[in-house]
Amino acid sequence: MTKFPRIELRSDTLSQLTTAMRMAMAEAEVGDDTWDGDPTTRRLERHCAELFGKEAALFTTSGTLSNQLALRVHTAPGDEIITDTKYHVNFYESAASAGLAGVALNAVDSPDGVITPELLRLALQRKKRAPQLAEPTLVCLENTVNFHSGRVIPLDSLRVLRRHTLDAGLATHLDGARLANASVAAGASLAEFAEPADTVAMCFSKGLAAPFGSILTGPADLIDKAARHRLAYGGGLHQSGVMAAAALYALEHNVERLREDHYHARLLCKLLSGHPAFGVDPDAVETNILVVDVSNTGLSATDFVRAAATEGVMLAEWTPTSFRAVTRLGLDETAVLAAADRLLGLADRTREFDA
């Protein structure tokens, strides 16, 4: 049991509902999305299609479901998807991808989370190609890149890669779970980030602080197919307007405020980077995620995260030698300063003990 007030930094999914968002949910007009359609959900889907510059959009329960629906409509069983080893679709969804879409994942290992034309060429050429073997049909990208401290993949990189994927006859899906963070950090619209991809997904339950849901956008025919598969996967929704209202509220009120989260992440990074116990590069923090190496504390990540919890700072163990901290709605500068102070004090004590 900690003697300090708890500071939650494990994930932005741990943001708490605001009173205003709860009111929007309570007042939502609802119907049945699997019968005649839910009016608030339809409004959300139309709004997101416009925001992303796509023909249509589909409200889903989660980012994972949006990704899996995209894989299903872009591929046939036995096809191959090119992605990165650290992207969510490979790191967390490989079993789902094989079980639901029947696809094989061909993952490259980029140093910074950016799939370049050279890495795409490597993925295409390093395996034997023949009619009876897996056919590459889709490239799956991620923006921001969770495992690389919330890195924003620049628009120029996406556009260059798009030219090469089109030349290779490959479709592109963008897992934009935190694409709103990328949009705010880069000063580019969601539509600009979505343009180099055929389908794009974005979560409402991360930095946007809604309690539920994701959106999948793309061509109308693919979204129609995705809607049918959503039902088959058990993702059909009834009075979904309650949750759609939260997503609409988040899009209206919680996008620009992501700048606060980015500032707080950079502030925490700057405070920790001045201590020799922590390995973290302030220039690498572009959005609301920082990954911090704790090797020089003398503790494993498991032990450091456990010790931090006793100080009331909740972190996520990320690798055997690092933790992840994510800033979010409800975490102000005072909390960030307090978290840094406790972590610096913990580092000092562990190093003294080690000495």
Walk me through the topology:
Blueprint: E1 7-8, H1 19-26, H2 39-52, E2 56-60, H3 63-74, E3 79-84, H4 88-91, H5 94-101, E4 104-108, H6 117-125, E5 135-142, H7 155-167, E6 171-175, H8 179-186, H9 190-194, E7 199-203, E8 214-218, H10 220-232, H11 241-253, H12 258-273, E9 289-293, H13 301-310, E10 313-314, E11 316-319, E12 322-326, H14 333-354
Parallel strand pairs: 1-10, 3-4, 3-5, 5-6, 6-7
Antiparallel strand pairs: 2-8, 7-8, 9-12, 11-12
The CATH H-level superfamily of the largest domain is Type I PLP-dependent aspartate aminotransferase-like (Major domain)
The total tally of domains equals: 2
Largest sheet: 7 strands, mixed
CATH fold naming of the largest domain = Aspartate Aminotransferase, domain 2
User: What portion of residues belong to β-strands?
Assistant: 15-25%
| Secondary-structure content class | alpha/beta
Number of helices: 14
CATH architecture call of the largest domain: 3-Layer(aba) Sandwich
Helix/strand order, N-terminal first:
EHHEHEHHEHEHEHHEEHHHEHEEEH
Strand order of the largest sheet: 2-8-7-6-5-3-4
